[in-house]
Amino acid sequence: MTAPAVLMASFVVLGGLLTAAAQSLGLLPLAGSPSLTLGAYTAVAPDLPAAIGLSLAIASASTIAASVVGFTAALVMVQGRWCGRVVAAVSTLTIPFPHIVGAASVGLLLSDSGLLSRLTGAGEAWPRLVGGPWWIAVIADYSWKESAFVALVVTGALITRSTGYDETAALLGAGRIRRIRHVLVPLSLPALTVSATIVFVYTFGSYEVAWLLGRPYPEPLPVMALRVFGSASLTSRPEAAALAMVTTIVSFGAATAAFALLRRIPLWR
Question: Per residue in 210-265, pLDDT tens?
């Protein structure tokens, strides 16, 4: 039943990757004759270390924060009490909003002249959270949006299997902390790892939030790729494709490492 959808998705993804790879290697130039060359990669090489490092830092910080908040929210939702239902409703409402809308909201909240700055009366003493050196607003937006996704994924994994184990551990005298450590964390670890990997890959390759809330320089890898792609010079397109391929390679590396970690988790096996 899913084969046609998988086939179409694979065609789109593989077609895009092959086109980007060919363009980055000079085989599909928009101007001039095709020739196999690594010129696009060497042209962007000086800026790659800073761009990759910044993108990895933003993605890692956002993933860790989203995983911690999402797992905590999942624990609240699994209890089935009124507060859990409220958290579930808020998480469900958060997911459909586009990241660009969330980024605009975070900007209005955390900017120098934003809502929090005015409510606290900080004025010029307000720290530069938007466009500042630590990319706080970008990480805050990703953490807020993606924590809802992590919470719903982990809740779906826990709600079907945690009740019996949790009650058994409680009957045997385990306290709340011990039940979380020895029951809920192991049961949720596969779902948490998968959802965290998705969050990392998405935040690593996403550009709109970093473009809207971040600094002009240094640029994360996706923002740099978008800027180069939109350049007036047609000869810069291979460089944009090269940046896109580097982003893809790093993302595949992160996914491969995550699945290697999953194979070590007993519940996944």
Answer: 999 999 989 999 999 999 999 878 778 999 999 999 999 999 999 999 999 999 98
Domains along the chain with CATH numbers: 35-264 (1.10.3720.10)
| 44's tokens | 């962007």
User: HSE-up of 80 (CA within 13 Å, CB side)?
Assistant: 5
Cα separation, 31 vs 61, whole angstroms = 40
Question: Hey, which bits of the chain come out as E strands?
Answer: none
Q: Which residue has the tokens 């808020």?
A: 90
Length of the chain: 269
Q: What is the pLDDT of residues 78-135, one digit of tens each?
A: 887 888 889 999 998 999 889 999 999 999 999 998 999 999 988 788 999 999 999 9
Angle at 73 between CA 68 and CA 74, to 5 degrees: 100
